[in-house]
Amino acid sequence: HYQGVDTDWWTPSSNAASGSFPGLGCDAPDVPVVLFVGALSRLKGVDDLIAASVSLVGRCPHRLVLVGDGPLASVLHGRVPSHVTLTGGLGRERVREWMRCARVLVLPTKPTRGREEAAGLVLLEAQACGVPVVTYPTGGTPEMIAPGASLLAAQRSPHSLARSIDEALAWSEDERADRGAACRAWVTHERSLRGSVDQLRETYADVTR
After folding, report:
1. Cβ contact 4:191 at 8 Å
2. 86 with 77: CB under 8 angstroms?
3. How does pLDDT run across 103-162, given as a tens digit for each residue?
4. In what order do the strands lie in the sheet with 104-107?
5. Phi-psi bin for 81: left (phi > 0), alpha (psi -120 to 50), beta?
6. How many CA atoms lie less than 13 Å away from 62 in the CB half-sphere?
7. Which of 52, 123, 157, 194 has the most CB atoms around its CB within 10 Å?
8. CA-based diameter of the chain, in Å?
9. Are 115 and 92 in contact (CB under 8 A)?
10. How far from the centroid of its chain's Cα atoms is residue 136's Cα?
11. Gyration radius (Cα) of the chain, Å
């Protein structure tokens, strides 16, 4: 049984085509936003993401935005490159604004001290907003991405992650829009909160007969 996300709330923005997101600095279409949302920790792969971004930014300009707080926050503040933005923890509405603004969301979660990501609901939230995602093949994360639309890195390494991010940033506007629409359709059909509740009701009905 999969958890679902509210696809009536996590939605694409009508402003997405124009790139109008006041206050977020997303009004430079030639500098796409690569977004991370989650705990700033090694479990979530923030260290790998920063390394991958640094290796790319010289030949593939982009802005890396890290939304969240966590054990690595104090280490990162004041030490990240100029193209990296740390927002700290944000409310749900502001997170959705950043998702709608992003070219791609990246969650390179990896096994840490015997722990693995069970699902990664942020992957579903982003895709419901029409944003393709890039993730590592860890735990249940491969089951949280739209087949053929989002990307699964070949290996859990900064080099492999950089290749996947590079691929995503190279998509044309039309391909990016098509993939975003496919992500949204997949989440709505396969991982919506409404569908999850219906499935759970069916399960309870089966075991109580």
Report:
1. yes
2. yes
3. 999 999 998 888 887 788 999 999 999 999 999 999 889 999 999 999 999 999 999 999
4. 84-88, 63-67, 33-37, 104-107, 133-135, 151-152
5. beta
6. 29
7. 123
8. 62
9. no
10. 11
11. 17
Q: What is the pLDDT of residues 80-106, one digit of tens each?
A: 999 999 999 999 999 999 999 999 999
**b vs e for 49-85, b when ≥16 Cβ sit within 10 Å of the residue's Cβ?**
bbbbbbbbbeeeebbbbbbbbbebbeebeeebeebbb
Per the structure block, which two tokens stand in for 22?
Answer: 């006041």
Q: CA-to-CA distance for 128 and 9, rounded, in angstroms?
A: 9
Amino acid sitting at position 182: A
Dihedral of CA atoms 33, 34, 37, 40 in degrees, nearest 10, equals -120
